[in-house]
Design brief:
By secondary structure, the chain is of the alpha/beta class. It has 2 domains: 209 residues, 3-Layer(aba) Sandwich (Rossmann fold); 141 residues, GAF domain (Beta-Lactamase, 2-Layer Sandwich), CATH 3.30.450.40. It is 41% helix and 17% strand. It is built from 8 helices and 15 strands. Strands 4, 5, 6, 7, 8 and 9 form a 6-stranded mixed beta sheet that branches. Helix 4 packs antiparallel against helix 8. The longest helix has 77 residues. The chain is elongated and about 85 Å long. The C terminus is likely disordered.
């Protein structure tokens, strides 16, 4: 985020705030230990912490938000999980390095209010306290000695940094979606606006008027696109790093010269080399020459091949490394936990010291293959669930539009019906009224 100091401020309780901010609009949020309570105490805000799930419908109408200024923790939806959780509790879901905020499930107040409810966006300004992670870590580490906050247990700089990153992403999303937000990135420091090209005033409103509706939707669409790209990039990276780890560890554990890991997508012929010892483009071409790999994947049965240097097909095989001599091979399928098929294979080449592969080697590699499949399939499922989440969001939006059209038609029909009834029944009813004493 690009931040710019808000110049027009007023001092309340020794702390600067945007001049055009009403205390009855203010919601303060941010990672634990960032100073939310300190600021609220300085301005005599509502003393209790609040919590709302921002993936819930109409969360902005919650009775909790009737009392402002106040501190609020957001329940955030993450890709692949139905339950929203506060950022400091993400470790209850999974390894946080695999977690992505599911922005498609975040609900925000409509840009325009109604006569009955009013405009909730005008009733709400969100201050995000985003201190540098290193500073926040030191503050929380000092606080953890008192044992008063369970969120400081097992605290690390990595955890604090990830929590800050989630809040930063949420602040940017709120801003780009047209919400009124500002950032405070130092204790008691000045409020900062999130600066975008062409925007002017402190709370995300153009100096010439309100942000055009089509611009808000354009920003929103761009953010969704970037989020989808980021999700796929992170998922692929996490997938590759995990497979590379297995490919590095197995040669040492089983005393072999090479390890290759192949994966195969459902419905596609042939396997592709995902990771391997000293992986190069030439080595990828070399490994694709192995018909045994596809045979193991297609049959789901392991294969051991000994004395390969004595067999002509293997002896004459053109290898990327001419000094490498094939002696023996162990191929074990990676079996799917969701379907009755193999999704890949692990190949080990050349037991060192001219040893042969034994039953214990196969059993160990099968265990590794099982754990690898659990992890890889989990990544694929997250990706599919993210796609499904987007489809549901789109369908829900379409359904919402259709519902509004149907409601408008019904209201019009009702008004027409009332008009007809008044035209037909009005005169007799008036006569009846005159007859009453």
């Amino acid at each position: 985020m690009i931040l710019e100091e808000i110049k027009e401020t007023v001092i309340e309780g020794g702390i600067p705030f945007p001049r055009d901010l009403s205390p009855q609009q203010l919601i303060i949020t941010g990672p634990p230990g960032s100073g939310k309570t300190t600021i609220l105490n300085a301005i005599n805000g509502w003393p209790e912490e609040g919590y709302v799930d921002i993936s819930a419908n109409d969360w902005w109408k919650s009775p909790i938000l009737a009392h402002k200024p106040r501190e609020l923790h957001f329940g955030v939806p993450f890709c692949g999980y139905d339950k929203a959780v506060p950022v400091y509790d993400v470790d209850t879901l999974d390894d946080s390095s695999y977690l992505e905020i599911d922005f498609l499930r975040v609900r925000l107040p409509p840009p325009k209010g109604t006569l009955l409810s009013g405009n909730f966006r005008k009733k709400m300004v969100v201050e995000f306290i985003l201190l540098p992670p290193e500073q926040l870590y030191e503050l929380r580490k000092n606080r953890s000695d008192t044992g008063t906050h369970h969120v400081d247990k097992d605290l690390t700089l990595h955890k604090v940094t990830e929590e800050s990153d989630f809040y930063s992403a949420l602040a940017l999303y709120f801003h780009q979606s047209g919400m009124k937000v500002y950032v405070r990135n130092s204790l008691g420091g000045p409020p900062m606006r999130i600066k975008d090209e062409g925007e002017g005033d402190e709370l995300g409103i153009n100096r010439g008027g309100t942000v055009p509706k089509q611009d808000i939707y354009h920003l929103h669409d761009q953010l969704r696109l970037r989020q989808r790209i980021m999700n796929r990039s992170w998922s692929a990276r996490g997938n590759r790093e995990l497979v590379d780890l297995f490919a590095r560890l197995l040669p040492e554990a089983l005393n072999v010269e090479r390890c290759n890991i192949f994966l195969s997508n459902s419905g596609e012929e042939g396997a592709w080399l995902m990771s391997g010892t000293n992986l190069t483009e030439e080595k990828i071409k070399e490994c694709r020459m192995w018909p045994q790999v596809n045979h193991v994947i297609s049959t789901g049965e392991y294969m051991v091949h000994e004395n390969m240097d004595m067999e002509e097909p293997f002896r004459d095989m053109e290898l990327a490394d001419p000094t490498f001599v094939l002696r023996n091979s162990l191929l074990v399928p990676i079996m799917s936990i969701m379907e009755d098929r193999a999704t890949g294979a692990i190949q080990l080449l050349n037991k060192k010291n001219r040893q042969y592969f034994v039953e214990e080697d196969r059993l160990l590699v099968e265990k590794v293959a099982h754990h690898l499949e659990l992890a890889v399939e989990n990544v694929y499922l997250r990706r599919e669930m993210m796609d499904f989440s987007e489809i549901l969001s789109t369908k829900a939006a379409d359904s919402s539009t259709l519902s509004r059209i149907i409601m408008a038609i019904l209201i019009a029909a009702l008004l027409i019906s009332l008009g007809i009834n008044y035209y037909l029944l009005g005169p007799p009813f008036a006569e009846l009224i005159k007859m009453l004493p």
